[in-house]
Amino acid sequence: MKDFDHLMSVWQGQPKPDQLSVDDVLKQVKKGIRSITTKLYWSIVAMVAITAFAFIVTFFLAFKSAITTVGILIVLVTLLMYLSLIVRHYHILSKHDATLNPAEYLDSLKEYQKTRTKVIGWFYYIYILLISAGLALYFIEVLENSSLTFKLVTYGSILLWFVFTTFYLKPRMFKNEEEKLNLMIDRLVRLKEQFD
């Protein structure tokens, strides 16, 4: 019995978990979301510029081969698909205000994270594959009069780019964003539990 009393006193003597400040948590979450939306905004600006360039190349330059035009169209359609995806993500993140209803905001953030992880997972591979295929088709005509060595270097570079972005860049890029989202969600969950 004495051991039980000692165990109870030790257990009750444990420090209480820190109480989170509502203002601090909401400021940190807003700052984190602003960081992600700013990155998405500049990605949108860059994608609009690249898409406009691809559009100009597709419809205002004359190519001898239909394969070249198909390659550029594949790139253009892929860029438009990616642009629509990041615009959608930007609107999802920027339309809610964490200060109005934190519980609803937490639910929308969890839903965004779940759908983003699912969509980005398969879409990224399709995106990189289509861009690489489109560039490969485009370079058939562009490199028509080039040496075999230059063609091999160009196609090898496309292959290396595909492997690099798929297996090195993607995991690091998405892991960083995932950690930011997890941190914000964790803070909001702890804040919610504090008031439950």
Written description of the protein model:
- Helix 2 (22-60) packs antiparallel against helix 3 (66-95) and helix 3 packs antiparallel against helix 4 (102-142).
- Helix content is 86%, strand content 0%.
- By secondary structure, it is mainly α.
- The protein has one domain (20-195).
- The radius of gyration is 25 Å and the shape is elongated.
- It has 5 helices and no strands.
Average residue-wise pLDDT: 81
For the termini, the CA-CA separation is: 34 Å
Number of helices: 5
General form: elongated
**SSE string, helix = H, strand = E?**
HHHHH
Low-confidence stretches: none
Q: Kindly state the number of beta strands.
A: 0
Oligomer: single chain
Structural class per helix/strand content?
mainly alpha
Helix percent reads over 70%
Transmembrane segments: 40-61, 67-87, 119-140, 152-169
Keywords: Membrane, Transmembrane, Transmembrane helix
